[in-house]
Amino acid sequence: MTRLGGPLLSVENLNVYYGGIHALQGIDFTIERGEIVTLIGANGAGKSSTLRCLSGLVTAAPGSRVLFDGRDLTNAAPHAIVAAGICQAPEGRRIFAGMSVEENLYLGAYSHRSVDAARLDYVYNLFPRLAERRWQSGGTLSGGEQQMLAIGRALMARPRLLLLDEPSLGLAPLLVKEIFAIIRAINHDDDVTILLVEQNANQALAAAHRGYVLETGRITLTDAGSNLLANDLVRQAYLGE
C-alpha cells in the first residue's frame, strides 16, 4: 500500500447549511494516501452531509475549503470531482434497477468515455456474484448484491478516494463481514484510499486506520481506529456497551 507524504484530502472549516439548520459546523479533517478513515456518530450528526459535500451534491458555505491532492475542489461540479478521482457509493445503493448489472457497471466508467476490459474483470473478480448475474436486472438482485454493484460501479471510475456511505445498511451479519473484507481488499490490493461512513461502528473502527467522531455537526474526537474501539466513551455511546 502506497504511503506518501502529505494528505490526499484536506477539509478545512467545512460548514453546510440546510436553510436555517447548521448541519456541519466548521469541521476539519485530513485523509492520508492509503488510509481507511471512518466517520462515526449518531443519526443526524452530519456524516452523510460530509460525503455529499465532498461529492459536490451539497454546497459548502463561504470560508469552507476542500483540497484534494493539493487541488481546490470546494464546490466543484460533481462530474469534475469524479474526474479528479473522488467517487461515492451512496447510501441506499441507488443502482439503476431496470438496467443489467453490466450496464450499471458501464455507467460507472462514464467519465473515462470507454470501458476498460481489465477494470471490468477486476470488479467481477472482486464480486464473483456480479459476474454470475451480469445480464440480470439490478432491481432483481438481493440487498447484498446491490451493495456490491454500487461499490463495483464506483470502482469502474478508478477512484483514488472512494466514499462509502453506510455500506452495511440492512445486510445480514455474514454479508456485513463479507462487505468489510472486500473494503479492506480494495484499500490494500487496489491502493484506493477510503472514507467510510457507517452505523456499524464496531466494524468500521476495526477496519479503519483512523476515525473521527461527529456530534451534531462538530468533530469531538479523533484517534486511531483501534484506540477509539477501546475508548470507554465511544464504547458506551456508539458500540452499545
Helix content: 25-40%
Strand order of the largest sheet: 6-7-8-3-9-10
Q: pLDDT under 50 segments (min length 5)?
A: none
Main pleated sheet = 6 strands, mixed
**How much β-strand is present in the residues?**
25-35%
Structural class comes to alpha/beta
Tell the overall outline: globular
Order of helices and strands: EEEHEEHEHHHHEHEHEEHH
Number of strands: 10
The separation of the N and C termini measures 34 Å
Mean pLDDT: 91
Enumerate how many helices there are, as a single number.
10
Outline of the structure:
Helix content is 37%, strand content 26%.
What features would you describe in this structure?
The chain has 241 residues and is α/β, with parallel strands linked by helices. Helix content is 37%, strand content 26%. The protein contains 10 helices and 10 strands. The relative contact order is 0.18.
Labels describing this entry:
single chain; 26% strand; 241 residues; 4-stranded antiparallel β-sheet; 6-stranded mixed β-sheet; alpha/beta
Give the arrangement of secondary structure elements:
Layout: E1 7-18, E2 21-32, E3 36-40, H1 47-54, E4 65-68, E5 71-72, H2 78-84, E6 86-89, H3 101-108, H4 117-126, H5 128-132, H6 143-155, E7 161-165, H7 173-189, E8 193-197, H8 201-207, E9 210-215, E10 218-224, H9 225-230, H10 232-238
Parallel strand pairs: 3-8, 3-9, 6-7, 7-8
Antiparallel strand pairs: 1-2, 1-4, 4-5, 9-10
